[in-house]
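Here is one chain, start to finish.
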Amino acid sequence: METYLLDWANMLVRWLHLITGIAWIGASFYFVMLDNSLKPPKKAADAERGVFGELWAVHGGGFYNSQKFLTGPKGEPLTKDLHWSKWEAYTTWLSGMTLLAIIYWIGASNYLIDKQVMELAPGTAVAISIAFLASGWIVYDLLCRNLLGRDGLLAAIVFVFVVACNWLLHQVFSARGAYIHVGAMMGTMMVANVFFHIMPGQRRMVAQIHAGEEVDPRPGIIGKQRSVHNTYFTLPVLFIMISNHYPMTYANKHGWLILTVIMLAGVLIRQFFVLRHRGQVKWWLPAAGVALLATLAVLMAPKPVDASGEKIGYAQLHTVLSQRCVACHSAHPTQEGFAQAPKGVMLETPEEVRQHAAKIAETVASGYMPLANLTHITDDERALIATWFAQGAKTTD
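Its structure:
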């Protein structure tokens, strides 16, 4: 019953995480577009009121005129009916951390720990996870504070820092656990930017305007810096959110390097859209991103398996699957932590094995399955499955 309830919690929290993530990212993308699309105000009166830039837009059958004031309007009060964008970010992070706890902390033995990487007790693994997320934010924040105004250098150092963390995590956790922690680290940076810098800075500016004081522009400058970082983190984080469906990436022996290349491709593609909002169309950016992904696809392609050797009968295959896979992939799993077969994949009958033959071969060859090798499959057994599939994946002897 406990595992069943955790499955329900997983589903509902994941749904919430997806919904609020869409809301947060949508708002972020919109405001980046808006900020980079502003034109000088056409009316002299608007410029005198403090309008820095404006954008006319059409949507939903109506027309909108968005105006930006860097330090509030001049000669008139600032409305108290301000719209604040914050709860999308907070709810996305809180739901993401809850999901991390449900899957990777409660299920640490299955999803976070790989004893072939490092022997860890579940409690130790969870403690490392929490410490890593906190220290990642601290290092990133110190870099931003000390390199304010040196945006190019800061961006390069932050990217190197994220790559170094990516490599380090692969030396501690399972490949899947490492990937999700890179994403959780960047997501924590993003929401902490909102909570510790963007929102407090905006509150100070609003308070100064309402008090009739001269507005200090520094909080706005810092908030803009952190918002820009958040938009470049977005595409890498989105990929990591869906990466658990693609073990060909993280289960590869060069998984950390594959993630680095995919993150770089995401940054290049995001940069194209940021510049396009400013009227600068640089097609080489998405072309470079696509070229990186295409190169990965070629280099990661599985090598052909020699099918000319001894014929593998279904009885041999069935013995391996029964010992190494059916504990999870059955109508009534016996492996602790599973109330039902993962993704509904059951491997008890020849028909079920035939239906999932390609996925069996792929996930077993990559090393992703069995999870954390809990059932101690051997290299010879992996080779047997690969040969069986190469010989036509027959389920009759």
